[in-house]
Amino acid sequence: MITFPNAKINLGLNITEKRPDGYHNLETIFYPIPLEDALEACPRKEGPGSYSLSQSGLSIEGDAENNLVVKAYKLLDETYHLPPVDIYLHKHIPSGAGLGGGSADAAFMLKLLNRMYRLNLTDDQLEAYAARLGADCAFFVRNQPTYAEGIGNIFSPVELSLAGWQLLLVKPNIFVSTRDAFARIRPRHPERNLRDLINQPVESWKDSIINDFEESVFPQFPAIGDIKTELYRLGAVYASMSGSGSSVYGLFAPDAVLPDVDFGTGSQVFKLNLK
Ligand SMILES: C[C@](O)(CO)[C@H](O)COP(=O)(O)OP(=O)(O)OC[C@H]1O[C@@H](n2ccc(N)nc2=O)[C@H](O)[C@@H]1O
Ligand SMILES: Nc1ncnc2c1ncn2[C@@H]1O[C@H](COP(=O)(O)OP(=O)(O)OP(=O)(O)O)[C@@H](O)[C@H]1O
Q1: Per-residue pLDDT tens digits for 151-209
Q2: ipTM of the modeled complex
Q3: 238 has which bridge partners?
Q4: Whether the Cβ atoms of residue 109 and residue 125 lie closer than 8 Å to each other
């Protein structure tokens, strides 16, 4: 069985407080984007162990047992004693980009195993499993535009469609550690709620919706801030870093002609049509 885990962007991100457990409460809107990995699981034919993982495409740091798709398999295997599987992961979503690629793989693996072995888990149950694998994994279970609070795991749906809008997404050759990015933030509550701001026209977002990580990440990596400036110069209606970086996106109007751009060696540029 094959599935195509997609990335997300954050539309606005307010880090509101540090919690006693070291994590941070935040407010953000997750929006799914059509940038995808490919993930396949097949009944295991031969060989030792209960799983194998074959990877292609972009390389991922760490051993197979630390891959989130394997962690997802092991998590369900604890309760459901699943048959052995061969897993194939083709990585296309850049890591360390704030695009949630690892989280998407984890959630899609749970959904795939649920279908493949007819576990009959509900979306609520899948979300509870996903939340154990990473702060924003659970979003990818329903994979709909979502307002998230808590550590990024308490959800309410938002009435928001960017269908037809175009996304120019840039991943510079810079790795931002999510943990370090959080450690550099001074949390604060925003004056206006993101849920209200997002209902205003996209044209107003430039002056009202911010990603708090930009304040700490741009001074550390000025090249990331320069990309945002350039996207506005090229005509983006709204531009922002996604998550804790390092990717930056520009939203362009449906009728805009996206320019061909190059942000230097090792950087990647994606042109996507939002749904
Ligand atoms: C910044 C976002 O991309 C926004 O969408 C996400 O909140 C990050 O989620 P994620 O990559 O799934 O994060 P995790 O892998 O669970 O956590 C990485 C590290 O970030 C810090 N962390 C993460 C989420 C959170 N709400 N508060 C935190 O302080 C913790 O130090 C944690 O050890
Ligand atoms: N299947 C996977 N795909 C990508 N990374 C994985 C995977 N499994 C484990 N990881 C580990 O997770 C780390 C973060 O990967 P991810 O793709 O979620 O990036 P991110 O940009 O930090 O996303 P986020 O928006 O959640 O901050 C990687 O550096 C890698 O070591």
Answers
A1: 998 999 999 999 999 999 999 999 999 899 999 999 999 999 999 999 999 999 999 99
A2: 0.92
A3: 251
A4: no
Enumerate the known binding-site residues for ATP.
Answer: 94-104
* pTM of the predicted protein model: 0.96
Counting every residue written for the chain, the total comes to: 275
168: which 2 tokens?
A: 């120019």
Mutation pick for ligand 2 pocket among 60, 74, 268 (CB with most ligand atoms within 8 Å): 60
- Alpha carbon of 171 to ligand 2 centroid (Å): 14
Q: 45 catalytic, yes or no?
A: no
**Which 8-state DSSP code applies to residue 76?**
H
Which one is catalytic: 37, 105, 136, 212?
136
